[in-house]
Structure formats: C-alpha cells, structure tokens
Amino acid sequence: MKTNLPPLDSQDRYSRQVRFAPLGEKGQRQLRKSSVLVCGCGALGSAIANTLVRAGVGTVRIVDRDFLELSNLQRQVLYDEADVAAGLPKAIAAAGKLRAINSEVTIEPFVVDVTHKNVEELASDVDAIVDGSDNFEVRFLLNDFSLSTGKPWVYGGVIGAEGQSMTILPGETACLACLIPEPPPPGVAPTCDTAGVLGPAVQLVAALQSAEAMKLLSGNSGEVSRRLTIVDLWSNHLRQVDLAKLRAAGNCRACDQRDFAWLEGRLGSKSAILCGRNAVQLRPASKQTLDLPAIAKSLQDVGEVLVNDYLLRVKTANHTLTLFPDGRAIVAGTDDEATARSLFAQWVGS
User: Fold this and answer.
1) φ/ψ (deg, to 5) at 107
2) Burial of 201 (0-12, 13-18, 19+ CB in 10 A)
3) Is 216 helix (H, G, I), strand (E, B) or coil?
4) Catalytically annotated residue among 175, 192, 252, 255
5) Helix (DSSP H) and strand (DSSP E) numbers for the chain
6) Is residue 275 annotated as a catalytic residue, yes or no?
7) What is the DSSP letter of 162?
8) pTM of the full predicted structure?
9) Is pLDDT of 12 > 80?
10) Which domains does the chain have, with CATH numbers?
C-alpha cells in the first residue's frame, strides 16, 4: 500500500502528540507510514477512524455495509443531519468528513459487507485491523484471518453502558475464539434493540481501541495490553481480565487447532439481522453488479424511490428496501428473514 507523505515538521499538527515521549518523532513517522483497516464505520468505527486520521495514520481504509439513519446521530460522531438526508452510505459520508479533517491521510472507503470472499482483498495489505463491527460473525471472521496471516487486530464491543476491548497478537495473546468459543445463539445476548447504547460508552471503548491501534502502528507493540478490558460507565466500574491461562490451555479451535471455519466459509450466513434497526441484510449467493437506475425505473409504482451512485432505496407504507450495486439488500420494517426474502423477490426478483 502506497502513501504520499509530506515532510514531517515536529511543530505541525502532530506537535502535541510528538511531545508524548513514549511515541515521539520516531513513533509519529512510523504512524504516517502505516495503514489500518477499520472494519465497520458506525458507532465505534466512526470514532476510531476519526481518532486515527487526526493522529496521522498514513492510510485509513474504512469498510461498512450500511447507510445512515437519524438514530445513528446519537452516537456516531462523524455524521450529521445533512448526511442522513443525502441517503449516503456510512463509508462514503465518513470519507468526506475524514478528508476534510486531515488532507495528509489517504482515506479508502468501501461500501461492502465483509465476508470470507473479500476479507483478504480488504485486509491483506494493512498493518493492523480495528473492529468497528456490530456482529460476531464478522468478528470471528477477522479473528480467523488474523491468526491465519499473523496480522494483529483490536476487538471492541458496546451494549448499553457496558463495553469491552482486547488486542489480539497472533501467537502471543489469547484470541477471540479463546475467550468466546462460539457466537452466542440468537436472542441470548442483548442487542441495541433490547438494551440500547449510550454514546459515552462508545467513546470510551473507541478510545481504548484507538490507543491500542496507535501502539501497534507506531512500532510499540510491546506496550499493547494483554488483558481483556471491561467497562461499565453507569456503575463506574472498570476491570481487566488476565487471559494468559486461556492461551496456555492449548485447546482453542483457532489458535491451537488452526481450524479457520469462518475464513474458509464453512460457518457464516447469507443474511443478518442488523443491530437496533428492525432490518435484515440479504447477501447474494454470487458476485453481482446491478444497474441501479434501471431497477429504479421498474420500482416507480412500488413506492417512493431514491437512487444515487451508491444505493437505491424504495419506501412503502410498511417497509423500505435498500439495494446496493454489489447485489446486497437491506429490508427495513421486519426482523424476519423469510419476510425480507419474500419482499425482495416480490420487488426485485429472486
């Protein structure tokens, strides 16, 4: 990955950061040569991308499958009402804001769903991965990819006022599969819909993840936390859990058995219920490139239609279908996969 880096002046925008001795000018130069994938650009991801771009990371690649809604603005710091009104995907809206924040940083937005088919293309040439996703399927995929390639990644998650973060250094630390052998069954773990989420908790976890990413990208991996950090802002609790025994147990599917079921596509679905959205995402079985303007014409009698370079949206009284050029669709107004697939087939075809 190539970056165009102007000469570093210690008196420039990074001067206060350079004066922090553990980072210093050497660390800052390393940051500006580095690249990172921020996977997801919602609550956590937008805050992480904002921090890393301001810190001067050379290339920040942001990947997000979703578009903006008004409910996002409570906690997703990069966006405003104009972005929602424009009907923009999060990655595109974020890229515009980030380029305005720091023109020295290369911003690479991708409006895609991260799957076992494209994770190598998205992540193979970056120095580290930071989790801003909202589901365990993507996290287990990132974990498998990390362990198979030796690339470090930083996990994070927030529900309600609680959040947690851990950094995975392949071969050194426990991984996500050590901590959580399998994703929780549907309906067992709380979600944004059931428990809500507080903006300050998002900001705190994003700060923890961003600091860990800066350590990795600046050549200070020795300072990375080897513990799981758990915070609860409502009860004012913070604790850290030593995971050394989990790593030493030697029975992890991913670390020890080298079974990368998510990366190989043996686990994973072609649909997902989106957190806090009353919506279902549908993925095509094969790679597609759709002619959105042509489809928009065929849907004029179905409902209110919006189409731009990034998506097509049709609204009816009870449901909204958002279609992307790669064939993905998000059906809002239901959390039932069968209903979503039925509406998709009715409006677009099977």
Assistant:
1) -110, 130
2) buried
3) helix
4) 192
5) 13, 14
6) no
7) E
8) 0.84
9) yes
10) 15-248 (3.40.50.720), 271-347 (3.30.310)
